[in-house]
Amino acid sequence: MTFFQIVQSSWRYMLDGLWITLFLTLTSVVIGFFIAILLALSKMYGNKALYAISNFYIEIIRGTPLLVQLFILYYSLPVIGIRLSPLTASIIAFFLNSSAYQAEYLRGAIQSISSGQMHAALSIGMTKWQAIRFVILPQAIRRFIPSWTNEFIYLLKYSSLSYIVGAPEIMAQAKFVASRNFEFFKVYLFAAIIYFLLVTGFSEVFKYIENRLKIPGTLSQARE
Amino acid sequence: MNKNNDSNSSNHVILRVQNVHKSYNGVEVLKGISFIMNKGETKVIIGPSGTGKSTLLMCINRLVEVDSGKIFLEDDEITSAKNVHKIRQEIGFVFQHFNLFEHLNVLDNVRLGLIKVKKMNKEEATNIALKELERVGLKNKIDLYPAQLSGGQKQRVAIARALAMNPKLMLFDEPTSALDPELIGEVLGVMIELAKSGMTMLCVTHELGFARAVADEIIFMEGGVIVEQDPPQVIFNNPKKERTKEFLNKLTKLYGKEENQ
Amino acid sequence: MESLQIVINSIPYLLKGTVVTLELAFFSIVLGFMVAIFVSIGQLYGSKFVQTFFLLYERILRSLPELVILFLIFYGLPIIGIRLNPLVASIIGLGLRSSAYQSQIFRGAISSLPKGQVDAAYSLGMTKFQTFFNVIFPQAMRISLSGWTNEAAVVLKDTSLAYSLGVIELLRQGTYIIAVTNKPLLIYVICGLIYFALTFSLSKGLGYVEKKLAIPGYEVRRG
Ligand SMILES: Nc1ncnc2c1ncn2[C@@H]1O[C@H](COP(=O)(O)OP(=O)(O)O)[C@@H](O)[C@H]1O
Ligand SMILES: [Mg+2]
After folding, report:
1. Residues C156, C94: Cα–Cα separation, whole Å
2. Is C158 touching A (CB cutoff 8 A)?
3. Class of C2-222 per CATH?
4. Which of A125, A138, A139 shows the shortest C-beta gap to B117?
5. Where along chain C do its domains lie?
């Protein structure tokens, strides 16, 4: 079979997989973001207990492979009676994983805002919460966006791991197609092209958005 | 040219600092500071760096907590107040490094406190903000962002931001020391006008020309204590303490002879 | 107590898996390092064609999932007559992906050096080659170290993907044990802890090296 024939016969399957991949990535990164806010704020402004818990969580997640986390969720939970579909298990594993990374990016962004901003906000009578909400976060979020888009791309690529537990995303579809026509290399090459286009496309869109959001007069964020 | 203090009639005390002590990690930075400020007075604090001048101003606005001693704004005790945000609204703070909100344009920088803290509606807040921006001569820059302004313009916006809250007292922490020399004048000009208009001002600055022009008293601080506190004529012409004289000599060497404004 | 017995019985197997994981990580990082030096020199000093070639190389490897890279190598090389065992295929896949990231780290470090460094070296009569190895390289390596530490941890964690090619590394050993004992939670958590211990010691160890190599008063940029 020529490569073109492979594409012709398999693009429908790959398209199905593409939607699952995008759904998986987007859901995980968004849910992960909200958990990350809680983690970052607990780590920075929380009491000792909150700090310890969020720090422990972040270190453990960042210190272990995503695949292990996925296996624990997918293969172990049935033992205690919780049976998750491959897709659900993947989403949960991915957002738990992503939340830890995003929390660290968020913390970095918040800490990069000078203490003078907090002082100035307090000096006009804002409460600490108002200062965080109206002064610190709007600036921190802008600095967070480049790491957030990196995280999105990262998850987009690593969502392929959910194929190993059987979620029907791009790689799983590729395997399905290949196991019927035995053209493993060509089918995976097709998958590779899809990932390449996805990643490149999203990177360009994100670059555009970052430029649009930048504060006038400030240098654009350097991003490779 | 000093303002006239009707010394007996309007001895209305705005700020009272009583025996304030403050340590960082066991090192005492403020070792018992006391002074008062009457309504309409301008006082200038001078002293070598690391002496605790910034710490003192931050204590007055409670951006830093004192270890002991008391500070009053009129009759309210700042140092123990439950609602510190209320008191901070009544004290304006101008920082050495401006600390403008980088994500907001000039108008929003000045309006933010009015809208979020004083809960004014947008229109009212805008009117006040424009009035204060006019006072500092920046009414035509309201759409620009901090990163698009010169240092002198930034500091004038910062002054307008503080004034918009209609404070009883303004604190200035070396407002011109981060500026290029040619930009210092525009900020001092605004400050002089403000002093003349009757604002109560406590300024850390080494602009001796400014001090001579508007200060009612100069406080010389060193090593966490007030060494001398006297009117400019006394400080400049015959200071009571030898240390004051030495410090002023050093200053004039560093900054050149002060110009008369 | 049954669990404890299982854990004790599993230890030799898990250790065997850990050794394979470490082999994978070590050889992948070294391969990635060597290729990365080559790629970054090509990108900085090569002709237009060489530069574009390496740029494309980097772009593609950075855009593909590790899993896809592994599959392309595993299924692709036999087509041109190279038959590899899964372990070697994994090392090549992990190493090539890492080379793209490592070269980016080096390039960033090299271009962050002030231009005056090169001028100063030339002014002493050094050649381009001498300048690179005596002045640029030693400084760039130090600046790269923190980014490189990160990358090494990423590779270490990514070795778990070799599971999908059938390499009997830590995770697959764990899966084999589970097939016999039916204790997935216990065994996978232990695997996780082993990985954690490895990444933890890796970053602590490299952090120590970084401190040791730091030039006094020299601001090391954090990656
Ligand atoms: N947040 C802080 N933590 C520890 N030490 C501080 C802090 N802020 C100021 N200091 C120290 O307190 C001393 C006084 O500082 P500061 O009030 O800034 O002096 P000045 O404004 O007169 O130059 C300095 O030695 C400074 O290092
Ligand atoms: Mg100071």
Report:
1. 9
2. yes
3. mainly alpha
4. A125
5. 2-222
